[in-house]
């Protein structure tokens, strides 16, 4: 039997944060911590504030809270294939943020619409045969020199594999290596495709002194998660990009 194109999150939407928090107790942090950590990484790579952002696979809108915190002037749009999750995101009533259901393939925006597309821990829930089609659509809606951020769990990290294996909504997840993600983006002619690894140590107090070292370990491919940042556009247009 072939895998469904997308994992179904409607049944988990209302309890998603509770389930996630229970599943990651061993990390010493909660769901909000990891949502915020990703937006902090984006902030480190961006100089602008008035950005138009697409959160593809926005779920219940948790990342939107932190986009509003770190990019106060941004215009935020969240899309998800789970109607229940989108409904919960709407209940947050965040300013300058809009959430919509979509079919998972056709992004309902015009070409060159966004400065940033953010995809966090989404692709491992999508059958790999659809990855290139979805990212081609992402490329369409990015502006020239627009940036794509893909965050994923790192299958080379044993604790990550354990957490994913025991998580109810990750039952059908197929983790992607950073090499796979980077190779796919290069095939689609994204430019400046760079990988950073994060979350090397548990967040318990006993490890507090080690956390400051993580910024020096981004090159080491054993972090619990990784992100790949890439840019749309020709080398000529990228040379003229100033942030």
Describe the structure.
By secondary structure, the protein is of the alpha/beta class. It has a single domain (13-239), classed as Rossmann fold, CATH 3.40.50. The protein has helices at 16-23, 31-45, 62-70, 83-90, 131-141, 158-165, 178-187, 208-211, 235-239, and strands at residues 52-56, 75-80, 97-101, 114-120, 142-153, 191-198, 225-231. The protein has a seven-stranded mixed β-sheet, with helices on both faces. The protein is globular and about 50 Å long. The protein starts with 15 loop residues before the first helix and ends with a helix.
For the structure shown, list the relevant keywords.
disordered C terminus, globular, 7 strands, seven-stranded mixed β-sheet, Rossmann fold, alpha/beta, 243 residues, single chain
């Amino acid at each position: 039997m072939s895998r469904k194109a997308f994992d179904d999150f409607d049944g988990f939407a209302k309890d998603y944060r509770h389930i996630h928090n229970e599943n990651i107790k061993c990390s010493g942090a909660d769901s909000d911590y990891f949502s915020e950590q990703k937006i902090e990484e984006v902030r480190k790579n961006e100089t602008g504030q008035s950005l138009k952002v697409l959160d593809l696979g926005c779920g219940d809108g948790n990342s939107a809270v932190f986009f509003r915190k770190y990019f106060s002037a941004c215009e935020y749009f969240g899309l998800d294939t789970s109607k229940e999750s989108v409904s919960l995101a709407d209940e947050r009533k965040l300013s300058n943020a809009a959430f919509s259901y979509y079919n998972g393939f056709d992004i309902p925006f015009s070409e060159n619409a966004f400065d940033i597309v953010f995809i966090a821990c989404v692709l491992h829930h999508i059958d790999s045969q659809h990855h290139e089609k979805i990212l081609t659509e992402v490329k369409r809606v990015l502006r020239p020199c627009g940036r794509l951020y893909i965050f994923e769990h790192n299958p080379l990290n044993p604790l990550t594999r354990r957490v994913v294996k025991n998580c109810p909504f990750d039952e059908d997840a197929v983790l992607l290596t950073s090499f796979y993600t980077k190779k796919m983006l290069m095939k689609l002619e994204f430019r400046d495709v760079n990988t950073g690894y994060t979350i090397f140590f548990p967040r318990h107090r006993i490890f507090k002194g080690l956390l400051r070292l993580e910024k020096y370990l981004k090159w080491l491919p054993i972090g619990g998660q990784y992100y790949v940042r890439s840019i749309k556009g020709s080398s000529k247009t990228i040379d003229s990009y100033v942030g």
